[in-house]
Design a protein that fits this description.
- With 110 residues, this protein is mostly beta strands.
- It has a single domain, classed as OB fold (Dihydrolipoamide Acetyltransferase, E2P), CATH 2.40.50.140.
- The two termini are 24 Å apart.
Length: 110
Amino acid sequence: MSDLIDIDYFKKLDLRVAQIMKAEKIEGTDKLLKLEIKMGDENRQLVAGIALHYSPDQLINKKIIVIKNLKEATIRGVTSQGMLLAASDDQGNLSILSPDKDIATGSSIS
């Protein structure tokens, strides 16, 4: 069983709805995509290891859930300003988490 966290620790995560505006493969990698996202009035760039499961064309305008307050990182020379959430199973399937109803980008997840 994973280490348990309390509600105060969970509340530190700033989870938001975002929309993918642009997606492209990162040259020299098979797994990484560079995503340009919109969260309310803010635009950001993410790097996501989802290219084996989603083509860039499948992602345009898709609403996703992201961790907004994740420390910025540079992956393969590309800046990533957050992380999208996805589920994976032991057969290697992957599914991006997405709201089941239309909701404004920037909306907080609680």
